[in-house]
Structure formats: structure tokens, C-alpha cells
């Protein structure tokens, strides 16, 4: 119904609005406006290609440089060294990777002497926590039996809080944890393979202990004398054969033998303080010969771990002492260094 507004003028023959502007206004727009007059396509001009339109918009925005090359066209330079952490092996962002430092290196450089000493203590505490997880893994059958008692057990068992199954699980967990300690699971220098060997050997020792207890109980019920076993449950030879000659247990034993200490062959009360000696004597009271031997081996295992941690701490103290000495020789001794030197921290021993 274009006839109501003066006829049906075709869009292609309609006069351009820009051509009707005043010449001075045209000149002003061509100089100050963001769009140029020649950029306005006339109806007779063919449609520009997508690349031409892209170049037109770039010229209007002031981007006169050519577009960046495609990522597919980038080829790695033979002189560019790309770190393994980079997601782009073709050498992109190489200028950003020049100053890159791994997180572990930054954390190690930012730690002071107290932080490094705390790492030793934290590593020992982590090993103690790992013992609980390993003991539960070895006692998973006892744990499942206790859970089944609560879910499908008889009314009498539930009224007694599944006491029998609970005692079995608690005994398994306690003894497995103690076996792990005796076999050197608290040691800080171990591999995952050695962890697995220690865990499997601890489980083997627990089931052998149960078999011996059952044999002793059967002999007691039958009125027979207590059975004699060929060798103790834990011996240095059998433990070394099960864990390997390069295990933490074997290394600690060799070190103790070289130092003339007997805590790896058995329990030597003279290695402990008088207070600890009294505690050990109370722990051994009322135990059978087999139980005493096992208790002594467990205490010896705990002592091995404590000695290893003490050695690590002494090494950290020695490194810190050398660092304070170096700072003093270079004339950069801090106030804390002066206080520690006055308190005698720089004396060895």
C-alpha cells in the first residue's frame, strides 16, 4: 500500500539520504565522523566478501595491522625451549614461560628453617596417621562382620551391642597397628612397594598369632601342656627375609648393629630413660613369654622410628647452624642469629 504515501518507489531507485546533505556537513562528517563517505556502499556496488568486510571493520577501529596468523600455521622454533608444563608445544607464550618456576621450587625457596623443621615433624605424624588406614584395610573382614551383625544379626546380639564382633575388630586393629610399627612402617624413607610388603607381612603375622593363640587355648582346654613354638613370632631374620635386605627395617638394624645398640635384636632397657624403663616393666607384667617377646619387638620398632626422626631433626639443626655461621662471616647476622649464638645454639653436639 505504498501508493498512500505517493506511489510505489522502488528501494533501488530511492535517492540516498547522504546525497541530500549540505556539502559543508558532508565535509565535516568525512573528517570527524567514524565512517567515511566512500565506505557507504552504493546500491550498484557488488556485495563485499567476508574478508573485505573484516578489513573494513578493522580500518574503522584503527586496526591497520594484519590479523594474527592462525594457530595451525604456527610452527615451533628450533631454538624455543618449551617447558613440560606448557599446554602448547608449538612455542606459543614462550615469553611467559621464561620466568616460570615450579610450585615446589617456590615453596621450598620460601620456607625458613622453622618450616623445614616442621616438615620433618609433619612427615612423622603423617606416617602415624597412615598406620591407622593400613590397619583398617587389613581388618576389613572383621569390620564387615561387625557391620553385618548390626544389620542382620540376631536380637540377642543387637541387645549386647554386637560385643563379640566388636572385640574381634578392635583386637585386629590394635595388633595390626602394632605390627606395622614393629616392622618399620613409621620410617620416613620408604617406597610404596615397601609399604605394601610391610602391610602384607603385618597381616600374615596377625593371622599366625591368632593360630598360636587358638593352639594354646585348645591345649589348655584339653589339659595338655602349653605348646612350644620353634621361633618367636617376629625375628630379625624372618622380617628381613619378608621385607627385603634394602628395607627400612634392615637399614635401621644395620645402623644399630654398627653403633653397638641392641634395640634391633631385642629390647635393651639401658637405652631408655629411667621413667620409660618403669613404663616398659609395667607393660610386660602379667604377659606370657610369647606376648612379652612381641611387646618388646613393638617397643623396639617405635624406638627405631623415634631415632630416625631425631636424626632428621639433628640434620636440620646442623644445616641451620651452618647458615647462621655463613651469615655471620658475611656480616649479615640477624638479631635472631645473635640471640641463638648467645644461647649456645651454635655449639655442636
Automatic annotation (TrEMBL):
Keywords: Coiled coil. Residues 37-54 have a biased composition (Low complexity). The keyword Coiled coil applies. The keyword Flavoprotein does not apply. Residues 277-304 form a coiled coil. Residues 13-34 have a biased composition (Basic and acidic residues). Residues 72-84 have a biased composition (Polar residues). Residues 1-87, 319-349 are annotated as: Disordered. This is Autophagy protein. It comes from Meristemomyces frigidus.
Amino acid at each position: 500500500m505504498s501508493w498512500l504515501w505517493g506511489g510505489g518507489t522502488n528501494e533501488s531507485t530511492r535517492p540516498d539520504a547522504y546525497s541530500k546533505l549540505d556539502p559543508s556537513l558532508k565535509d565535516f562528517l568525512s573528517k570527524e565522523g567514524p565512517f567515511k563517505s566512500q565506505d557507504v556502499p552504493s546500491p550498484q556496488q557488488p556485495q563485499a566478501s567476508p574478508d573485505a568486510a573484516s578489513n573494513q571493520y578493522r580500518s574503522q577501529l584503527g586496526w591497520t595491522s594484519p590479523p594474527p596468523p592462525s594457530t595451525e600455521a604456527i610452527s615451533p622454533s628450533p631454538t624455543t625451549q618449551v617447558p613440560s608444563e606448557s599446554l602448547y608445544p608449538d612455542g606459543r607464550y614462550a615469553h611467559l614461560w621464561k620466568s616460570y618456576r615450579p610450585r615446589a621450587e617456590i615453596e621450598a625457596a620460601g620456607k625458613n628453617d622453622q618450616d623445614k623443621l616442621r616438615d620433618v615433624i609433619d612427615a612423622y605424624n603423617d606416617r602415624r596417621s597412615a598406620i591407622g588406614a593400613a590397619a583398617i584395610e587389613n581388618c576389613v573382614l572383621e569390620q564387615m562382620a561387625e557391620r553385618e551383625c548390626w544389620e542382620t544379626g540376631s536380637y540377642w546380639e543387637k541387645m549386647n551391642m554386637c560385643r563379640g564382633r566388636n572385640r574381634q575388630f578392635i583386637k585386629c586393629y590394635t595388633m595390626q597397628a602394632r605390627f606395622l610399627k614393629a616392622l618399620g612402617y613409621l620410617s620416613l624413607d620408604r617406597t610404596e612397594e615397601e609399604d605394601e610388603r610391610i602391610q602384607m607381612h603385618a597381616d600374615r603375622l596377625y593371622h599366625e598369632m591368632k593360630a598360636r593363640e587358638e593352639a594354646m587355648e585348645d591345649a589348655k582346654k584339653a589339659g595338655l601342656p602349653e605348646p612350644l613354638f620353634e621361633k618367636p613370632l617376629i625375628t630379625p631374620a624372618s622380617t628381613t627375609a619378608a621385607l627385603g635386605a634394602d628395607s627400612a627395617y634392615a637399614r635401621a638394624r644395620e645402623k644399630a648393629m654398627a653403633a653397638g645398640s641392641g634395640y634391633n635384636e631385642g629390647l635393651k632397657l639401658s637405652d631408655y630413660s629411667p621413667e620409660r624403663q618403669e613404663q616398659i616393666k609395667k607393660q610386660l607384667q602379667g604377659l606370657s613369654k610369647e606376648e612379652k617377646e612381641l611387646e618388646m619387638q613393638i617397643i623396639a620398632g617405635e624406638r627405631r622410628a623415634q631415632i630416625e626422626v631425631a636424626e632428621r631433626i639433628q640434620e636440620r639443626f646442623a644445616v641451620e647452624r651452618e647458615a647462621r655461621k655463613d651469615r655471620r662471616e658475611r656480616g649479615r647476622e640477624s638479631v635472631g642469629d645473635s640471640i641463638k649464638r648467645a644461647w649456645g645454639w651454635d655449639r655442636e653436639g
